Amino acid sequence: MPFNYLKPLLQPAESKIVLLILDGLGGLPVEPGGPTELEAANTPVMDRLASEGTLGQTIPIRPGITPGSGPAHLSLFGYDPLVYDIGRGALSASGVGMRLEVGDVAARGNFCTLDDDGNISDRRAGRISSEESLPLVERLQAVQIPGVQTEVRQVKEYRFAIVMRGEGLNPELEDTDPQRTGVPPLPVKASVPAAEPTAELFNRWVAEACKVLADQPKANGLTLRGFATHPGLEPYEEAYGLRAACIAVYPMYRGVSKLVGMDVIEFDGEYPEDEFNAAARVWDDYDFFFIHIKKTDSKGEDGDFEGKVDVIESVDRALPQLLALEPDVLIITGDHSTPSSMRTHSWHPVPFLLWAPSAARPDVQTQFGERACDMGGLGTISALDTMPLALAHAGRLNKYGA
Prior knowledge:
Elements: E1 17-22, H1 37-40, H2 44-52, E2 54-59, H3 69-77, H4 88-95, E3 105-114, E4 120-122, H5 130-141, E5 149-156, E6 159-165, E7 173-174, E8 189-190, H6 196-213, E9 221-228, H7 236-240, E10 244-247, H8 251-259, E11 263-264, H9 272-281, E12 288-293, H10 295-301, H11 305-323, E13 329-333, E14 350-355, H12 370-374, E15 379-382, H13 386-393
Parallel strand pairs: 1-12, 1-13, 2-15, 10-11, 10-12
Antiparallel strand pairs: 2-14, 3-4, 3-6, 3-9, 5-6, 7-8, 13-14
Helix pairs in contact: 4-8, 9-11, 10-11
């Protein structure tokens, strides 16, 4: 187990740890010599924390490897994503509160539009709204086939999640989305012989589901992706001795948090202030707070440099709310880089700020940005080192050996 070397070192403490993730935080200059999005942002609070704390940068997976959001978060949580492979279906199902146990098989579903020949004309059914898709999800909830139980729940807009429960199910199945239009959805195929009965069950469910969608002008078909089961990860409280809370807007991040044993905190709103208020409301109940900001990544993927700058600045303006709670350790970083110039995730190292007033060793850096982090006192570290650093600075690790 990855935590075996830490467990003998764990010691109780009253300290509070906050892991604040600005999704896709890392960026690139738009032109040679120019600033990145983080460097261009006006962030007086983060800059003060940088001058009082220690900077560095993380490698989410391995050098040169571009990570997905799920593996990148696993790494920050201390679970090596090259060892623990969590499928998108498990993340989606857990993220919307579905019960998922070892042996169940979950998949992420997309409504799609089929033409008269059964070919896909729109892979996302015209991006139908959540209000339009909800009655269609209710139709799918009624679809059952003998021998197994199925549960379907809406995720958002054209997306839904399905969980199949029964004896001997195997998640080694291939996606049915061909990733292009003008062709029909693929059948569910087994990646290994042992999964062939499960593939047949899902194909039977898809056939029945398409019958109840046939009269729809847009969402008259569906595709399934990311077949997975519960990964059986060791929960945070067992691994680190921490009562852990997740505060996130988007289902996928709530899902990965649930799979590692965090409690997902319900709250209204989607702005940093709303998330920090949620942390304040449950501050006395938890030791560890994972707070996730999504829109830095969204603006990066949109190619919106100034929009990403604005999101970073909005977090900085709200940070005094979080600091008023007096966390013992505050880490501000990203799960991966999403440069707006690339419009996608990238392999570049991720800025990392460690602030712990009673324990951090300040370096000479005074601003939070990629160049400063590259020269920071922590150097370039694996994202897997995040939790040991957090625990140590929170006074929760004893010494190793005599």
